[in-house]
Amino acid sequence: MSSRILVLGATGHFGRRIATRLASVPNVELLVSSRSAERARELADSLSSVTPHVESIALNHQDAAFVSQLTAARPNIVIHAAGPFQGQPHTVMEACINLGCHYIDLADDRRFVCNTAQFDKKALAENVLAVTGASTLPGVSSAVVDAFQGRFDAIDELSISIAPSQRALPGDGTVRAVLNYCGMPVDTVKDGRRHVVYGWQDLRRQHYPGLGDRLSAVCDVPDFELMVRFRPELRTVRFHAALPSRLTHWLLAALAGLRRVRLVPNATVFAKPAIWMNRLLRRFGSDDGAMQVVFKGIDTDTETTRQMTWDLLARSGDGPEIPCTPAIVIAKGLMQGELLERGATPCLGLVSLDDILAELADYDIETSVTWND
Which of 4, 173, 214, 242 sits in a 20 to 30 Å window from 55, CA-based? Predict the structure, then answer.
């Protein structure tokens, strides 16, 4: 039986990759959308050599006519890749649930991902799955934790970091979102207690095998809240982003400091020069990126405190395929009738690390595990 899958924001940075990969999946009727009818049509035309079952549609989830247009499109599954999700309401999720179709998004905004309980009862009643955060965070990060938690009697500390490639830097909307929480307080947990850090501060040097050393800084992500909510034994959770440019890190850290002392009330006033700098930097640097998850806890075999590090290295510009993969795995699971979960939920426990890595097998991506006593 075929599934009609709508990719919302299909001409964007991640949406295009998702649409391209889904086009080669058997029994998929693919609808690619953009705010621009012309751009959506161009993408559909480019995919027609892969599948004859592809259509284009102009959709803007912020328009008043969105719900009626979505209803007319008759999708079975909607993949929402039209970010950024910071400050975005759950309009698309709610519309999908009311329509009785499955919903998946690539959100990484903490509040957007964590505030889904209000839709759970309705999603269960409609027998649909509404998943938010089917991306690197918390989709991939939680899959890594699930894969290795059995090696520990208890995990005490969890440190997650991402190092994007120079050419996979965020789009203009994400740049504005980054500036919006620059210098803002971020609630975390350290040594079992509430701990406040500040966005784009707490600079530290971090080593990624095959990539080298980078500066990293704190970002506000869903994992700070979700990891502790579902794994209460965790006493410390950290997340850092390691951008390729040290200059960018120092500028963001300085801006965060100025905002903390209220000399800069709103960091988004620097959006235009930041966007210009972001576009300029994309022309330089490596195509390689990385992800790292560090566990610390009581090892099951030795009954001693040990540290385990899971590393991922993405070469050849293939890093952006990683955040696309949980959504694709979930969509395939729903199509094939293998994923029976229903309700509204963050992307936790829905995809396995093995399934993610199998989906990425054709890309220049490798992983490794090291232990330190």
Answer: 173
